[in-house]
# Entry
Amino acid sequence: MMKKILSIALIGLVYSCSFSVKASDDKPNDDVKPTITQEAIKNSMEYLASDELGGRETGSEGLEKAAVFIENYFKSNGIKPYFETYRDSFKLKDLDGYNVIGVVEGNDPKLKNEYVILGGHYDHIGNGKVVEGDSIANGANDDASGTIAAMEFGAYFTKTKTNKRSILITLYDAEEKGLKGSAHLAARLKSEGINAYTMINFEMIGVPRDSTEVMAYMSGYERSSLGETLNKYAGEEVVGFFEGAKKMSLFMRSDNFPFFKELNMPAHAISTFDFTNFDYYHHVDDEADNMDYEHMANFMNKMIPALEGMMNAEMKEVVLTEEEFTDE
# Structure
């Protein structure tokens, strides 16, 4: 069991040191873009998936600590609130829920009025079946990994200012209660008339797939041109089709689905967990020390040119297919 709790000083280090920049002869080079580092990912993971947060169940003290951590990360990295504050609050019976929402404004006078939504859920189930005295389901892969990906992308684009369209960084509460947080936010954005283009939900990207498989897969792959568009700009097949996603109806089971329903736009989940490569789904051993940080950094850095190309194209290349929606 990972017992390490980050000190205030270490948390400060997480906020301020997300990137590294490589240039020859140790000279700064404005043309060299930063990369997302394993160290930054691990530091965030070791807090969000720590025992101190108690499994991040909706309504818990640990969930509140996670929300504050994300808010402080946003502030330290220049990611501004989209609403009056970072929080999009909602009620779940007698529980208070909080999505945490930041925005990175686009740099194009016209295209900045269109939004690309990136997200992941930061809640988990709290406690799980006791194993060797451990009852805390830390939720490292599910979904601190996707939460951190969205946070890192937000910090990257805030720093580089290479996005023509604006980006919403959306971290959801109550996914484990039935997609309640993302459903609330999607309905709110629709009611406020947001001009949304695409939505990508990062769901369990903490472990690599088999080397014979495409690095990641996308739920509902055939329902839009998002996958092929991302791969075009990545310069390789980073996101592929996974038959298991269709069989398990994963398109409807993650936080992308409310955005598809409410906003009628391409909205998908991207994952590297395929139910064969990690034994600890909803398990107390879904912990920070079981994550593959080299894989996570590699995935995020491969996604950067894919996201940049998609969000900066003058015309909207990502469109829904004409296929009738059924059950996947």
Remarks:
- The longest strand covers residues 95-104.
- The first helix runs from residue 8 to 16.
- Residues 8-312 form a domain with the Aminopeptidase fold (CATH 3.40.630.10).
